[in-house]
Structure formats: C-alpha cells, structure tokens
Amino acid sequence: MSRIAAAFEALRNQGRKALIPFITAGDPDPATTIAVMHALVEAGADVIELGVPFSDPMADGPVIQRSSERALRQGVSLKDVLGFVAEFRATDKTTPVVVFGYANPIEAMGVERFADAVKAAGGDGALVVDYPPEEARHLVEVLDARGLDTIFLLSPTTRDARLKEIAQLGRGYLYYVSLKGVTGAANIDLADVGARMQHIRKFTQLPLGVGFGIRDAASAKALAASCDGVVIGSALIQEIEKSPRDDVAECARRFMAPIREALDGRSADKARARTG
C-alpha cells in the first residue's frame, strides 16, 4: 500500500477528511521551503502537493503564477524540487508528498529518470497537469513499477467516457477541480460539487479531493461534507506572499491550523465547551 493510500485509509477509519495544501517549491525562497512543509504538517496536513515552478502554468491563476515566477527567478528547477522532497523525507517518514507540475520539465528529464528520482527522494507520486489520460499511460506504467501514484484531475465538464478512463488510470486519489477556470477563482456551487461527487463515485473507489476556490475554514468544511479531502493552494500562497520573510513558515501554520480544526469539528467543540 502506498503512503497516500495508507493516509486516506487511516483518515477514513477515523471518520476524518484529508487536508491537502499546495505550495510552490522555492517560494518565497529555496531556504524556506522545507520549513514551510514541516509547518504544514504541524498544522494538520495529511498530504503535501509540492509544485514545480514553471514558466507557463496554464491551469494556475495569478497568485500561483507569481509564486512560480519568484521561484524561477531564484533558479529553482525540477532537480531542486526533488532535493526538497529528499530533505523533507529525511525527518518526516510518513507524510505523503505529491510532485505537482507540467509535462515539459518531466519530458526534458525523461519519464524514467523522473520516476527514479521521485522514488529515490522519497516522494509518493506525481500530478502532471497537461498529461491527458490518452497520453499518460506510459507515465502511469513507469510510476506503477516504482510503487508511485499518478494523480489525475477531473473537471466539472469531464464526460463519462473520460471519467471512466481516468478512474482506471488514477492512483492514490482523484483531484476534482470545483470550478471552470484557473486556480484562485471564487463562487463554488456546493450543491453542484456534491452532485458531481456522487456521480464520480459511480466510476471509482479512489478518494476524491476537491480544490480550486477554497479560501478558508468555512469553505473547506462546507466542501468536505461531499468529498474525502480538500486541496488549498492559492489562499495559502497568498498568506506566504504577504508574510514577513522570517515568519513565512509560522504564518503558513497559523493559516492552516483553523482549517484542520474546522474539518475535524474541533472549533465547534471548543465553542460548545465555552458556552456549556
């Protein structure tokens, strides 16, 4: 069983939902990335999506685009990202890490070399935004051979034929994009997401994570009612962006901790305890 599958199984047995933060590796600077990753775990993260900075991030809104630009200006590459994974894994043996990026850097490295490097670093899988299922079979086979998970995106417009194909190829969890558009958009329709979750579950037993547009504890808790985990990227990166450079990790922890509490219902328990 992969680390990702084990994490979701443990959460399911506890009746809890996964908290999955996304950060861009090397933002705001390479020296801070590991500290931020550990701070996110301290705040209750169950899986970390570690973004590979890329010059043309087509699925990402302006917040994540800026984070990529900051990292790229400091020369952060795919090789560096895998180095961050290895450094994190040296002291955290349990939290799954998904390398999140685009096909170009992986193709430049070579799919087999990439998979070997992820495995050697202690990573747990990859999500490649611009590998459609029709072109991802080789990647899945290569990652499968190394015990790594291939995470796929689903959208509100994914048709059933493609949904079936993705369900067969996907490993670990499926990432449902709750909105049409780019990361950081707003106006999530909770009823629509709930209906889509029910429909997608007809095709797969994989855990379903929902992302795009989740900004705070309230929106995370509302969405978690219909899925197995919530992914938070743009709102977290906005916190990183505005934080003092020497306080980034702590600011990230403070931002994520109330979201963990909301997912677990602990903030409500505290409120009842104060009024009881």
Q: What's the layout of helices and strands?
A:
Layout: H1 3-14, E1 18-24, H2 30-42, E2 48-51, H3 62-73, H4 78-89, E3 97-101, H5 103-109, H6 111-121, E4 125-128, H7 137-145, E5 149-154, H8 160-169, E6 174-177, H9 190-200, E7 208-211, H10 217-224, E8 229-232, H11 234-242, H12 248-264, H13 266-275
Parallel strand pairs: 1-2, 1-8, 2-3, 3-4, 4-5, 5-6, 6-7, 7-8
Helix pairs in contact: 2-4, 2-12, 4-6, 5-6, 10-12, 11-12
Short description:
The protein is of the alpha/beta class and 276 residues long. Helices cover 51% and strands 14% of the residues.
Q: What can you see in these coordinates?
A:
- This protein has about 280 residues and is α/β, with parallel strands linked by helices.
- The protein has a single domain (about 5-275), classed as TIM Barrel (Alpha-Beta Barrel).
- Helices cover about 50% and strands about 15% of the residues.
- The chain is built from 13 helices and 8 strands.
- An 8-stranded parallel barrel has the order 1-2-3-4-5-6-7-8, surrounded by 9 helices.
- Helix 2 (about 30-40) crosses helix 4, helix 4 packs parallel to helix 6 and helix 11 (about 235-240) packs antiparallel against helix 12.
- The protein is globular and about 45 Å long.
- Mean pLDDT is about 90; it is low at about 180-185 and about 270-275.
